[in-house]
Amino acid sequence: MDKSDKTDKQPDVKEVVEEIVEEIVEVLSPKSIWRHLKDARGKVLWSSPLIYAGAFFFVALDLYVTVYQAVCFRGNGIPRVRRQDYIVFDRGRLPYLNWIEKAGCIYCSYANGLLAYVSEITARTEQHFCPIKHHTELTHPHSRYDHFLPYGDGRNYEKRFNKVRKDFVDIKPAPGSRSKKS
Questions:
Q1: pLDDT single digits (tens) 2-28
Q2: Angle, alpha carbons 89-112-26 (nearest 5°)
Q3: Which pLDDT band holds residue 181 (cuts at 50, 70, 90)?
Q4: What is the pLDDT of residues 151-164, one digit of tens each?
Q5: Number of Cβ atoms within 10 Å of the Cβ of 168
Q6: Which pLDDT band holds residue 51 (cuts at 50, 70, 90)?
Q7: CB of 98 within 8 A of CB of 30?
Q8: 47-52 contacts: CB < 8 A, separation 24 or more?
Q9: What is the value of pTM for the model shown?
């Protein structure tokens, strides 16, 4: 076998590097807005206004639970839920997304994070005011559900209600919050 035959079969390092760089640039470059809209399915384009109209309701809900938690939790000694633990906006900074995709990621991060935040607020509220498990097994119980009293156990309800409603020892207090000892 001739040496020249061997070198012809090996790829040129410069070509390989150029191909790799092109692939990286393609992956990291945001798709043009026109191409994004052109490639979108019609159902996506038609449903987008309805999806994004929810922003108004999410902002209203966010404002409501902020006031609710500030008033009700402080007044009842319930540990406050840290909003920043649930609403995270990191995906909107990805360099390979165009501005439409970034807006979608920001919106979904906000909506899903807000609903998880609200779920935790309502879970703590329920634990304080009505810590009784349901008769029917829940498929997706919230984070505080395991602390609740059994359904139909009237004797223990009377004995343990005040202890269970204040049993938040597993929750670390938010930095700067004044936690009450029970």
A1: 555 555 566 677 776 677 666 655 555
A2: 50
A3: very low
A4: 999 888 889 998 99
A5: 19
A6: confident
A7: yes
A8: 51/107, 52/107
A9: 0.71
Q: CA 19, CA 62: separation in Å to the nearest integer?
A: 47
Helices 99-129, 154-165: inter-axial angle, 10-degree rounding: 130
Q: Measure the CA–CA gap between 112 and 87, rounded to whole angstroms.
A: 8
DSSP β-bridge partners for residue 149: 132
What percentage of the chain reaches a pLDDT higher than 70?
71
Structure tokens at 52: 């994004």
End-to-end CA distance of the chain: give it in Å, rounded. 86
Domain ranges of the chain: 28-129, 132-170
Cα 22 to Cα 28: distance, rounded to the nearest angstrom:
10
